[in-house]
Amino acid sequence: MITLEDLEKEVAVIQKRNSKVEKEKAWETSFMRRALLMVFTYLAIGFYLQVIDIDKPWVNAIVPTLGFFLSTLTLPFFREVWEKYFYKQ
Q1: What is the pLDDT of residues 3-49, one digit of tens each?
Q2: Residue 57 lies in a domain
Q3: What is the span of the domain harbouring residue 75?
Q4: How many domains does the chain have?
Q5: Does residue 76 lie within any of the structural domains?
Q6: What is the DSSP string of 43-78?
Q7: Is 82 within a domain?
Q8: Which residues of 42-78 are buried (b: 16+ CB within 10 A; e: fewer)?
């Protein structure tokens, strides 16, 4: 038989997990995460273009970085479409 103490422990575990999930969700949708990804994308592409000796590598690195940023803006829309039409629970 489950005791009240066992139920309290289970609720505490669930609350701790929910708190972690909420924090991870907040990070996934945060502007800080997107900004960091843009900076790292820009730097990686800029260094790569510089190594392969492309003219104006740091200017040319802006285009894929902005493309990445725009793709992150469209993801919430496509997630809603996916949840509505494709996700089967």
Answers
A1: 889 899 999 999 999 999 999 989 988 889 989 999 999 999 999 99
A2: yes
A3: 31-89
A4: 1
A5: yes
A6: HHHHHHHHHTT-SSHHHHTHHHHHHHHHHHHHHHHH
A7: yes
A8: beebbeebeeeeeeebeeebeeebeeeeeeeeeeeee
Contact present, 49 and 60 (Cβ < 8 Å): yes
Helix crossing, 31-51 with 4-28: angle to 10°? 50
- Looking at residue 33, its amino acid is R
Taking the alpha carbons at both ends of the chain, their separation in whole angstroms is 31
Q: Is the pLDDT of residue 89 over 80?
A: no
Amino acid at position 9, single letter: K
Q: Answer yes or no: is 2 within a domain.
A: no
The full length of the chain comes to 89
